[in-house]
């Protein structure tokens, strides 16, 4: 691995081998979604607790202070919307020159395995890996499920994660699921977990994050269950306690309750 790639990977994955990415890229297909109406205001209080920010170039330019020192993972796929014909019909939205201009630590792209756009999105990933690797930029593959949330089982996510790694992703983002160890075991690159839509309770999230870490994930790329929570700072601190503090779900929940009442 060349110095640039090693340096970028070290910016993303901390010295304990773990990572806490904060995705606020959802507007690229959801528009001004709940509690991301003004991205700058959502990001600001959470920034100190994230290791990296996953964001589009538009939000980066307009809402993130360039003097900020957090590494940026740039969302470089899109071209669809929640009201369009198919969320999976994505293309590459950004050039490698733009990634260099924005001084990003990594790029992120979705793949939609098992859809009509499987081939297209997997070839998007391969092309992006070719280009990004030339400049020492790691690619994070996002194993997307679109609106079909029921797809989140170990067989399907294991398939997607392995394929993404085989095509050259340096990090794979997938969902936590039952038997999550099977997903991690079959994926030869680091795995981070997304949160999906807001859950009924905070404890649910803390439980699955803890379970996923025990089963080999290196961390999270978790958005809505943080910034759509009524107490986003309390929530990110609690999750961070599991990721970097080796905390249990119970400890993290106690931390959440304490923080929210502050
Ligand atoms: C959607 C994404 C998100 O980055 C990913 O799904 C994580 O966010 P959340 O925890 O809200 O599911 O790829 O654009």
What does this structure look like?
There is one protein chain. The chain is α/β, with parallel strands linked by helices. The protein has one domain (about 5-225): Aldolase class I (TIM Barrel), CATH 3.20.20.70. The chain contains twelve helices and ten strands. It has helices at about 5-10, 25-30, 40-45, 55-65, 95-100, 120-135, 155-165, 180-185, 200-215, 225, 230-245, 250-260; strands at about 20-25, 50-55, 70-75, 75-80, 90, 105-110, 140-145, 170-175, 190-195, 220. Strands 1-2-3-6-7-8-9-10 form an eight-stranded parallel barrel, surrounded by six helices. Helix 7 (about 155-165) links the parallel strand 7 (about 140-145) and strand 8 (about 170-175). The longest helix is centred in the middle third of the chain and has 17 residues, at about 120-135. The radius of gyration is 17 Å and the shape is globular. It starts with a helix and ends with a helix. The relative contact order is 0.13. The mean pLDDT is about 95. Ribulose-5-phosphate (5RP) binds near residues 194 and 196.
């Amino acid at each position: 691995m060349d110095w640039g790639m090693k340096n970028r990977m070290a910016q993303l994955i901390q010295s304990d081998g773990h990572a806490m990415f904060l995705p606020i890229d959802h507007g690229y297909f959801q528009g001004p979604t709940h509690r991301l109406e003004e991205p700058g205001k959502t990001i600001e209080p959470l920034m100190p607790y994230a290791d990296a920010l996953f964001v589009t170039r538009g939000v980066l330019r307009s809402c993130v202070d360039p003097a900020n020192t957090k590494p940026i993972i740039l969302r470089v796929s899109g071209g669809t919307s929640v009201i369009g014909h198919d969320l999976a019909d994505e293309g590459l939205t950004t050039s490698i020159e733009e990634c260099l201009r924005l001084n990003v630590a990594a790029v992120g792209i979705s793949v939609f395995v098992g859809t009509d756009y499987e081939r297209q999105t997997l070839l998007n990933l391969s092309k992006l890996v070719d280009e990004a690797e030339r400049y020492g930029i790691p690619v994070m593959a996002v194993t997307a499920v679109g609106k079909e949330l029921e797809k989140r089982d170990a067989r399907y996510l294991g398939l997607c994660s392995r394929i993404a790694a085989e095509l050259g992703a340096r990090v794979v983002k997938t969902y936590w699921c039952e038997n999550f160890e099977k997903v991690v075991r079959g994926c030869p690159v680091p795995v981070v977990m997304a949160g999906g839509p807001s859950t009924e309770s905070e404890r649910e999230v803390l439980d699955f994050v803890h379970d996923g870490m025990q089963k080999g994930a290196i961390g999270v790329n978790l958005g809505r269950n943080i910034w759509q929570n009524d107490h986003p700072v309390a929530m990110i601190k609690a999750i961070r306690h599991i990721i970097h503090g080796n905390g249990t779900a119970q400890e993290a929940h106690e931390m959440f309750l304490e923080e929210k009442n502050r």
